Amino acid sequence: MSSQEFQEKKKKVLIRKVTPEKVLEEIAQGNKFIVLEDDIDNVPDGYTLVDMKYKDSSFKTLVPEQIVWYLANPGEGNIDDALDTVSDFYGNVKDFEEDAMTEGKTSVQDTNWATTARDSHQVYLINKLTKNGKDYDDKVLKELDLNDSYVKSRVEGIAALLLEKTPEQLEKNPNLKDVLKHVTINLGKETIKTKELQRQRCYVGSHWEYKDKYVPVTKVVEHTKTYSGIDSKVDDLEKEIHDYREKKHNGKTGRHDDTLIRTYINLTYVTKENPKAQLDIKPAEKVNKDEQKKDQYRT
Fold first, then answer.
1. In a shared domain, residues 96 and 187
2. DSSP letters for 78-114
3. Same structural domain for residues 24 and 82?
4. Is residue 137 situated within a structural domain?
5. Proportion of the chain in helix, strand, coil states, percent, rounded to 5
6. Helix (H) or strand (E) holding 54
7. Quick one: 123 and 199 in the same domain?
8. Are the C-beta atoms of 120 and 86 separated by less than 8 Å?
9. Lowest-pLDDT range of 208-217, 252-261, 262-271, 284-293
10. Do both 110 and 252 map to the same domain?
11. 20 to 30 A from 202, CA-CA: which of 62, 221, 241, 249?
């Protein structure tokens, strides 16, 4: 990052904390996590003032009442509405946290907010995928095309890459034959004279002696070292799934579909074998309301 880029980033960080007179402007922009720079006299309708204290520091935020309820009752309420709302909130918190880290001014309070938002987001994703928090909802899996052979094979391919399966292990799954590209990489050739292989050092190491049972020759032997691996990437497979589903559904896929598929991969394949290899679950980007209205009337 250049000095100029850092200064620009720093300016953005500094304006993350909002003065009371700018609150309504932030609300109009859809911000669901408003960090206050000063005390506020009148809390806007639909928002709650949360003052999180730690030792001598105070961290005041304005948060929608609906968010407070969802965070206090994770998994409750309308799942689709909750997923939209919590994702928006988590996105705002994540932006603030990342900016604070860039500025080197993180606090216990913003870390607590980020953890709470992330945990709640995860709960609603799991609730969307399941009927009771345990068994998958077949209807939702079908909507996500997880029973489609094209999507399923790539989902299994992503899991295999995350778990670093060997080519030998992958051969056992026929679904991955056309998904993961198996390559052999030549690391280089080394030249050895067989004559050298037929000699040995004398016992004091001062000179070479031929082994009696060998006849000296000068034939050159080339030995190639190879490495067998998989030339595929998780990002590429995710893009293939996304593009395929967009085309299949005429561009009308759900806002959280990619995130739900990632969550499904973690839960089904990765968590039980290697939790550290899980895909990062980020909040889905907010859908532009004007674009959403256009889609409703698009034929």
1. no
2. -HHHHHHHHHHHHHHHHHHHHHHHHHT---HHHHHHH
3. yes
4. no
5. 50, 15, 35
6. strand 47-54
7. no
8. yes
9. 208-217
10. no
11. 221
Strongest mean pLDDT among 80-89, 91-100, 176-185: 80-89
Q: How far apart are CA 159 and CA 230, in angstroms?
A: 13
Q: CB count, 10 Å around CB of 17? A: 15
70 shares its domain with 86:
yes
92 with 108, same domain: the answer is: yes
Give the pLDDT confidence of 222-250 residue by residue, as tens digits. Answer: 555 544 445 568 899 999 999 999 999 99
Residue 155 and residue 247 share a domain: yes
> Domain for residue 23, yes or no?
yes
Counting the structural domains of the chain, the total is: 3
Whether 215 and 294 map to the same domain: the answer is no
- Other beta carbons within 10 angstroms of residue 124's beta carbon come to 25
Structure tokens at 117: 């938002």
The answer to whether residue 269 is domain-embedded is yes
Residue partners of 66: CB distance under 8 A and separation at least 6? 46, 85
- What's the domain range around 220? 182-231
Mean per-residue pLDDT of the chain = 77
3-class state of residue 62 by DSSP = strand
134 domain-assigned: no
Question: Counting beta carbons within 10 angstroms of the beta carbon of residue 205, is it exposed (0 to 12), middle (13 to 18) or buried (19 or more)?
Answer: exposed
